[in-house]
Design a protein that fits this description.
Number of strands: 4
Shape: globular
Distance between the termini: 73 Å
Radius of gyration: 24 Å
CATH architecture of one domain: Roll
Oligomer: single chain
């Protein structure tokens, strides 16, 4: 019995009794397999981040800040600012405003999860959120985008980052 206790104590001294994983510094030249990408987990192809591309636009805004500004303008019902933050709206301002008022979207728990600047004039912003929307001539329904989220394209237009007009709108 005494030998068993001594043997157990010796093993604990050598191996440690912590549940915390041990970190080992890699040896020179060691390689590791790439981690699974977020886009693979959500079935979407998103270009890699380009660290050489400009992060800010001529107003000093990043793509993530512009996406956030769009959601904030929606919350304030500031339709002029909201419309100005879209890169390629496919309808005129009055039509877009009428549709936005009718949709009556209110975003909750909106989070920017990741920003990838793909080139000097293109970026992708991964977001998660909850909202309720009302389609034209339809009943309100909830939209829930939990992690891993969805990618929103952001484009630089005349030196400013703007959110691409998306099919959901």
């Amino acid at each position: 019995m005494r030998r068993g206790i001594v043997l157990c104590a010796a093993v604990l001294l050598v191996a440690g009794c912590s549940a915390r994983p041990q970190t080992v510094a890699p040896s020179a030249g060691a390689t590791f397999p790439p981690a699974a990408s977020v886009e693979a987990s959500i079935g979407t192809e998103v270009p890699s981040d380009d660290p050489s591309a400009a992060r800010t636009d001529s107003a000093g805004q990043t793509p993530g800040q512009v996406v956030r500004a769009l959601i904030d303008a929606t919350a304030r019902r500031d339709w002029r600012t909201w419309y100005s933050l879209y890169a390629t709206p496919n309808v005129d301002f009055e039509t877009a405003r009428r549709e936005a008022v009718a949709a009556s979207e209110t975003y909750t728990d909106f989070r920017v999860l990741e920003v990838r600047v793909v080139s000097d004039d293109s970026a992708r912003v991964r977001v998660a959120y909850r909202t309720t929307t009302t389609p034209p001539s339809g009943a309100p329904y909830p939209v829930v985008v939990d992690e891993p989220g969805e990618w929103w394209p952001v484009l630089k237009v005349d030196g400013l980052w703007k959110v691409n007009w998306m099919p959901r709108q």
